[in-house]
Each structure stands twice: as structure tokens, then as C-alpha cells.
Amino acid sequence: MPEYISVEGLREDGRRANELRRVEANVGMFPHADGSAYFQQGDTKVVAIVNGPKQGVGKAGDAGKVVCDFEMAAFSTTQRRKPLRLDRKNAELGSKIASTFESAIMTDLYPRSQIEISVQVLQADGGVLAVAINAVTLALMDAGVAMTDFVCACTASVIDGTNVLDINHYEASAQGPELTIAVLPSSSTIVMAEMKSRVHGDLYAGLQDLAIVGGTTLLPLLKKAVHDRTRAMLPCLGPAA
Amino acid sequence: MLRAKKFARKTKSGRVLTVSREHYLRDDIGCSIQGCATCTVNPDTLEPTSIILPDTNVILHQLDVLEHQAIKNVIICSTVLDEVKHRSLAAYNRVRAMLSDKKRHFYVYSNEHSKHTYVEQNKGESPNDRNDRAIRVCVKWYNDHIKQVMPTAKDAKVILLTNDAANLKLATADGGIPGYTVHEYVRRFVDDPAVKDLLAYPSDTFSKVMAREDELSEPFDAYLNETAIQQGIKGGVYLQGVFQASRENPNEGFVRVRGRDDAVLVIGRDMNRAVQGDVVALSLLPKAEWKAPLDVVEKRGANVLVTSTKLEDEDDDAVVSEPKPTGKIVGIVRRRWRPYCGVLVDARPTDTHVLFSAQDERIPYVRIQSSQTAELIGQQIVVAIDAWPSKSRYPVGHFVRRLGPIGDRETETEVVLLEHDVPYEAFSQAVLDCLPSETWTCSDAPDSLAKRRDLRHLNICSVDPPGCTDIDDALHARELDNGNYEIGVHIADVTYFVRPGSALDKEAAKRGTTVYLADRRIDMVPGLLSSNLCSLRGGEERFAFSCVWEITKEAEIVSTEFFKSIIKSKSAMMYSEAQMRIDDKSDNSELTQSLRVLNSLAKKLRRRRIERGALMLASTEVRFSMDNETNDPVDMKIKEQYETNSMVEEFMLLANVSTAEHIFRHFPQCAVLRRHPSPPPANFEPLLKAAHVAGVELSTASSKELAVSLDRAAPEGKPYLRTLLRMLATRCMMQAVYFSSGTVPQTEFKHYGLASPIYTHFTSPIRRYADVLVHRLLAASIGADITYPDLLDKDKVSSVCDGLNIRNRMAQYAARASTELQCCVYFKGRPTAATGYVTRVRKNAVQVLVPTFGVEGPVYFDPIDSSKTAPTLKFDAEQLTLDVTPADGGQATTFKVFDEVQVLIQVDESDAQRRRIVLKLMNPAVAGVSVSAPKDVDVEPGLADEGAIVEDITGEQQQQQQQQQQGGAGPGGDAMHTDEDGGDEDEDDGAVAQEDAKDVARKSGGAGSTPGSARKGADAKKKGKAAKAKKQSTTPKKQDKAAKRRASKKKGKNSTKRSKRSYSQE
Questions:
Q1: What keywords tag this UniProt record (chain A) (predicted)?
Q2: How many CB pairs under 8 A join A and B?
């Protein structure tokens, strides 16, 4: 049986149980989009693009609508997979992301409008949904969409009786229960939670706490990415009045 | 810091993928040396002195040295640890054990994840070279680190240990890393001379170890290299399988290949140094070269044949059996060597090269070198095999440790336990800390009490074998107003005390089962629970888990209910006692009435079960009576069976089936169940052939047909025939196993022996861990207890079940081996004439079973006077007969299967180190071969005989505290046999189902609270506080072989006088 966590407490890639993977973020690299961001956690790399708010399609409502188009690049996994015309799995992830952000975006400010998000996964190495949500948060900030808070997402799992944070693809093959949680860090409100398998009730509380801590830890990293972008934009505004 | 790890991997379908993984390098991996102020994360395991850092090969080959207490302060770097784990899980586990021992100062340095010591593989560098370099870098870093952070610690340094000359040279050249070979290190730095004997021989010095006489003129064929083997196996040129040496003939073995029904035969040289259990690669010989197994029983000693000439001789007498697929071993995929218990062979005190003979007769002799031969003669010792050079007749190994004198009871028992991997050490303090106080009573747990149903008013009683202290089941019956009966089975509530995840729980899971040896019991849970707080003793309030049915007069179940309860057993009876109550017409007490109800319902249940096709297989149960003083067996007889045995058994079966249905309904994925697969038709071949020769046609299409045809077998002048057939049928069975319901399709749940579609074990949680799991599931399903994650994970449950299956099998084998041992003690100095039956005819011997004693073994036709010529044997494979013509040309005697013969049972002491029971032919008389009964046949042994087993009084006194009990029972080993008549508890050697009957039987070993033992206790009291003794009983399990017995005994601590007494059943 493979050993996912050594007796010395190191995971296969050298992290300890409660450590995140390295994070890289880049905001606003696509000038034609209203907002864009690249976010990477370990070897999971995601690009998010935001267009809008713009005129809503179909029946207009009082609140703005969020739609999300989620795609995995054919080369994103170790085994190249053929893109399907209608991929239910992707559609489901897309709608999950859309509804997550409906809880964070002040949609009342955008009546009869629609905000279009598209997510491209360039490389998938575990925790795709969480990384995508983080990327989308940055892209929305870049687009200037009004939000109540950052949305930070992170995964947690239980492997051999230990709670581990931010699992990669190899660790996911341990078949532990994988929890993805998105939180609004300032209030610790959970806006999305997804569990991939059955889990015993005794384990859940610990998993959830760990995932929330993971999300909260990400906040300063996301903030910094936004600040960097804003600072870079300052000169465009011209000299301060 | 980050490094990407990239490598290519091939998928099952053959595609090559590039896998990329992150590899983080850390700066917080501590050196762990005490006093280092620089390293932040520092467990402080190592003392600032001379520290050694061994490489992989040192760990794999010199583990016995490292395990010696004289070796302290060792760094294992993770590169090494990973390699060790990859190459030998057993070695890895031993390393882990040392690492967790604080006194040893072992530390794992995760060099692969430290930024100081990580090294990239260079271009053109092999992975092995890269790892060697990583280890050197690690040593270098340590030494630099020490110099830097503790310049005052002059003694502190890290030494590389490697037996690889090239590596050592690089190390010393490479910046002067201190390095030695293990041999040099031990010679120069280790004071304890005992360590030297533990050194395994490095491969370049095999020639020194090999005694000259071992050298073969023609070496074994060299093994293919690893790549060739792997490619050959993948390409189908070679087969991979597990090598199984024959117990009967050291020149033969089989390789079991996955996906092949028949094992591949390997003969003589073609075994090519494979040892029992090794995973080997073999090539099939062309069909023309296939051979038949010799079908002879080879006496031990002719170990390991090396020339193939002998085989040719054998071929003279026409090939009788069909040739089987035959192969030749071309390489070893994985060695499965372990330390072996055994003795030296023919050693003289001055010898330095001696041969070692393992207890397990499938293991070849091992050549070892020792400077202390004189002290090892007459001792049981442990030896590890190091290698088997191609030029050597025997593998070479080294001495590991000494167990004690041969024949000593403690030593021999330890051998049995070690050989069967039975955990027998005393319970740790952490486990004992989980126990309630000794004065605990049910009223100490008001919370639990409040939730339980109070059944203390019911007439509940338990019925067990004599001497049972771990009573886990009790029964009651009462008539309901509507004319139906309410029947209750109450099982000890072990899970109340054994909480999931506690140290106690882990220990019980590890032990898996209580092991009953002939003279002692190795408990699964500490004695306070097994013999007291859980045991449903008479007249005491106990927590129980109850299964209560409403049953009609026709024994149809109307409803079933499970709940936790508190009970007070009115009486803990023995089978005989319960039987007497039932038979005593004048006894009309309520308790007796309910026993009668139970008995009559049990008969109906039993009839119905038999109609469904449950098998009634035969077994005779043997019980030893023990001498209190020496604990030697003084009597051995078949155990009586009462109706009450099957009464209890029937209700236990019913409870188990009801429980199985219930937990499967509530936990379809993770229910712990027990199944007994149908035997493949090939298993029945020997039975059918033997039956055919005896004029009986059996049908084996289903258990029902088998049962019916066995019943129909008409004995013509051979009243014993039917029982013999039943016993042979028992041996055809598969092993019953535990499994998790989510891992096996439901169609395969059935229990063949019991003809039940679903089955589990619920009724003996005191002595079986599977029952503990079942109790937890059942409790969770009725809301009486909580679940926990591992209980509901089907894969975890499945792996626990696999472990339990292995433990159970080992426990059975250990019980058999122990019985065999006891048998030797019993028959020593007491040659006994007995009637036996031929169960199998071989080319050079007949297998004879003596049911009275449950002894089975080969009868050879060697002349009494070894200077005479042996009789001529003619074997007919069709008719299963063997014609024995005396050398002087007298009348031939024909032996055929199921013949009745008279044999003399005696102990062969020609080999003082290995006593064994032998059967000598008495009647029919064959001139020059048969023996006549010696005058002193069957005499009570005098004191002189007891010398064989040296009694260790101190040892016994130590044990007296733990209630000592012995369980009997084991199924017999090859040499013995036990059977029980008409039980359906079939366990057989492989076992059939273990049914509760056996179960019930098994616990009989308990010493204890039965009236019988109480009486004895009273007797003993009269003698002052002195000794009391106990008794024992045996129990049955039926198995195809073997006898069992158990005895228990308790002695007063200060006992100075001891009584000698033997007890029979009461």
C-alpha cells in the first residue's frame, strides 16, 4: 500500500498535513476581457475570464445573473482526453461556480444584467474546483464587479486517519473523502461546500474546520495579487488630482 | 524550494504517461541531535556521540545486528527507508519497531525533503548510484552541521556503515566521511561479543561459510536477472507463483500460479534453491518431461536433494499416477525468508560450521557458523537465512537467538507461538489502562444501565464444556400466552468495555482471536474481561447483548429482536449437568423445564437444517487429563457428546444467521460476514476414489447431495466406514472466511457447510474479534451505540477481515502443533496398542488414523532389524492397494484403504531433538516388519517419564495470576486427528466452517467457575492454601486432523504442597 503520509509527518511531496501548495497569481493579463486572472496552486493551473456586467439575455430579472462556462483543456491531465461537445461534468462545475458567486456578488446592483465567467483549466493536479473559484475571485475583482468579500476556496481530505489540506491528484487517489469549501473569509461564511464521497459524521467537523483555515490562509495571497494589479494600474489614472 | 519530479509511467493498457509531481524541499528538517540549538523542529532523539548511518543493504542484511540493544544512535535516512520498504516489508516493519523504541535512539532523517541534502540525479548516473550519493551527502551534511552548531561536542560524529566497497571508497575520498563496513564497525566499536554472532555473512565470503561437504560438484543453475524475469513473466514465457515445498518429500514442491487451477510440480534440482513461500518465476517443461509426484512419504533428513539420479530410480516401478505439469524455477521474484525456529543437527561442541534444522519441515537445512556451538546443542534456537549460493547444497544463515532447552515446556510453547506468528507478549500498560477496576459491577455504569432492558428475572443459564471461564453465551426459554415460545440468546457485551480506537481495541484487533493451546490460553482481551467482567457467570449480573425470538412450537421464527440487556445467569452448567437435568424426570424446576423446551426446539431446528443440506461431518474429539503437578497429560480419551452440545450449538447458529441477515440489511456495504465457499470438484477426487474402491458411490454435486449420499453409505462389515468417509469429506472442504459484504457479490455469501445463504459470527466476542465488529454493527443498527469511520469503510473492514482470517488459521495450526506436542509427552514411555484405519495408501507407506486418540500418521514397512532387506512393495494406484511381500518370500499382505489395522503408537526418540509420534504395524502381521505389543504397553508413566518436560515452577507461579486456562482444541496436524462425531461444526483443516459448535467447544478450556472446578477449589483449600488445580477439558473442533485438549490449572502462589490429580470430565 502506498504511504501518503510518512510516520515523520511529511506527505509524499514534502508538505506537512496542514500546509498549502505553493501559490502563484497573476491578475489582468488579458486586456480585451473585462477581468482576467491566472491562479495556480501546486500544479493545478487555471485561467478565469470575466465579461460584464452586460445586458442580460432572456428574461430579465431585478438582480444580475451570473453564468459560468467551465472547460478543461484537453492537455490538462496526464492522459489527454477528448473534449466532449456536451460535458456534463464541466457543466455541473460551471453552475456550481456561478451559484457560488451569486452569493458573493452584490447582484442587486446589476439589474437586468449578466456577468459571464469563463474558466479554463490548463493543468489539473487536484483541487480544480477550489483553484478555479480562487481564480474567478481575482478575475471578478479585476473586472471591478462589486462583491461583499473575497471568495477563498480550499480542499481538505482524510488520509490514513490524518486530516490533510489542499490535496493533489496523487493524494486524491487515496480515495479519502474530499471536501471543497468556499468561504467569505471576513465572516467565515461558507458559500459552497462539496463532498465527493460519503464520510462519517465524526470526521466532517474536523475536515470543514481545516478547509476553512485553508481558505482563510489564502486571503492575504489573493489580496496581494489584487493590490499588485491595482498598483500597476495607478499610473494609468494619471497624476493624482 | 521546489523541485519537479518527472517520470514516465506505463498504464495497465500499455500507454506511457509522463507524470509530474511537485517535490518540496524544506529548511525545517531537524538533525535531532540533543543540544542542537539551530534546528527548530527537533525531536532530540540522538545523543551527541558516535552516530551511525547505515545504507540500505546493511539494513536488509544485518538487521539482527542493528536490533541488538548494544547498537544505539542510528540515523536512517529516508532514501534508505524507502528502499528498505520497497524491497522487504518485513524488514521495514522491524525498522519501524526500532524507531519507535525511545531507548534505542533511532531517527529518520527525511533527507529527500531537506534542502540541505537533496541531490538531483546526474546525467548517466544510475538510480542506485544517485541514492548512494544522497546517503553520502547526508553523512557529510551531518558532520558539517555538528562541527558548526556544537563545536564543543568532540565525540559527536556520524559514521557511514556500508558493505559496498565502492561506496565506502567514494565516501572516504569524498571529503573524508567516516565510514566502515559493518564487520569492521562491530569489531572495533561494539563491546558486546554476542553481536558478532549476529553478523550475516557478506556475499563475498560465502566460501568461508560453506562447509566443504556442502559444495556441489555441479552448481545450481544461475538465476536469470531481474529484467529477464520481469519480461518473461509479462511475455508469458515464465509463470510467477508461490513455491510450496512438500511436507512429505523434501525433493518435491509445487508452485501455485494465479489463474491456474493445478499447481505446477517442481522436482529436485529444478527447485533451484527456492525455499517455502518464495515468489518464484518458473518455466514449464515440455509435456514429454512432465512427471508425476512420487507419492512416497520421504523421511526427513534426506533433505534437499541435489542430484537428479534418484528420480530415475523411482521411475522403475511404472509411472502410476498421471504426469502433472512440471516446471523448473528460473529465478526468484521475492524471497519470503523469515527467522526460523529449530535445532542443530548432529553438531559436535567443537564444530564451527553446523547444520540447522527448522521446525517447519518444509524448510531445508541451513548451514550456520557459530563460535558457541557447545552452548547451542540441545537448544531451540532462531536462525535467519542470508543467502543460498549456487554452489552450496544448503542455504547459509546466521544464528539470531536462543529460546531455551529442547523439550522444556515454556521453550516448546514459545516455538509454537513464534512459528505461527501468534502475538503472545503480556498486555501492555496502555492496554491495561483501558480496563475498568477489578471491582467493577453493572451498577457502576448507571448511564448504560438505564438504556438496557432488565432481564435479571428470567431463567437464563449457560451451558458450556467443563472448565470454561470465558462464558460468552447464555440461553433462556419461556412459554408465551399465545402458545409460542420466547427464546433468548444472550451474548457477553464485550463492546461495552472494548471501545473503538482504544489501545485495548487495537490490541484485540491485532490478536484477532484467543489462541487455545493444549496447556494454556493466549487471550485476545485481558483476563479481567475474558474470565470475569464479560464472562456470563452464574449468579452474577452482567451486561449482555440479547437476541430474542418468538418461535412457534414447530420452531418457526415469528419475530426477532436485538437489544442490549442486563442479565443474571441462574446457573453456569456443563453439558453433562444440563443433560442430567433434562433426563431427570423428577426435576421439574423452571430452569429444567426451559432446558427441555430448548432441547426439543433445537432438535427441530437441527432436522430442518439437515434437510436443507447442512453437512454432518465426522470428528472425534480427544481430551487430555492433566497431571496437576507437572501439567503433563496423564489420560487421553474421546470426549463425550451430549444432546446439550448440539442444543447450544443450534441456537448459536440461529443467532448468528439472524444477526447476519440483520446487519447485512442495515449495512449492505460493510457488514462483517462469514462465507464458506463450495469446494471445487477437484477437491473431492481423493474422497471419491477412496469411496469407489470401498464400494460406495458418493455424489458431490451439492452439500445436500453429499450429505444424503454419505448417509446412504452402507457399511458392510465395516461399521466405521461411514465415519471415515465423513472425516475424509471434511478434508475436502475449503476454508471458511470473514469478509466485508461490499467486496463480494451476494451470490457468494453462502455457507456451504451449514447450507445457509448468509452467516456471521456473533456469539463469541470474548475470544474472536470478528464478533466484536459484528456487535458494533448490530448495536449501531439498533441505535444502541455509535458508529465510527473505520467501521463503515468497506475497504478497511475488508483488510481487517483478511488479517483475522490469517490469525484464525494460524491459531488453528498453533493449536494443532501444541496438541501434537502434548501427544508426544503423553505417549512417551507409554507405547500404546490401538486399532486404526487406513485412510490413504501411498507407494511406500499407508496412512493410518487411530480414532481413539485422534492420532494419524504414516506406517512404513521398514524391517525391524535394519540389517535385513526391506519387504517388496507393490502399489496399485487404481485400486488403492499396497501389496507387501516380506523379504524372505513369505505370503504377501495387501493393504487397502479403510482397512482396519492394529498399530503400536510410540514416540520416536531416535532423534533426541525432534521427538515425534510414530505408528508401528502390529496386525496384520508382516514378517520382519510388524512389532508385537511390548509388555509394558500402556502403563502409567512413572516419575522418570516426566523428566522429558522440565517443569519450570517459577514460570508457573508467575502465570498463576493470570488465570490460566487451557483450551483444547485444535485440529490436528498432519500427525494427528480429531474428530467429532456428528457435529456439524465443521472446521476442517481448512476448514470448514467453524461453527459454533466448535466454538462452544473451544472455550471449554476455561478454567474456572464451573461447579467442577469449584469443587476442586474446595478440595484444594483443605490442603491449606496450597495449590489448586484445575482441570481441563478438551474440546472439539473437528478438524480433519488432530486432537485437542485443554487443561487448565491454577496454582496457589505459595504453593508448597501440590496435589496430583487428574480429572476427567467432571
A1: Cytoplasm, Exosome
A2: 54
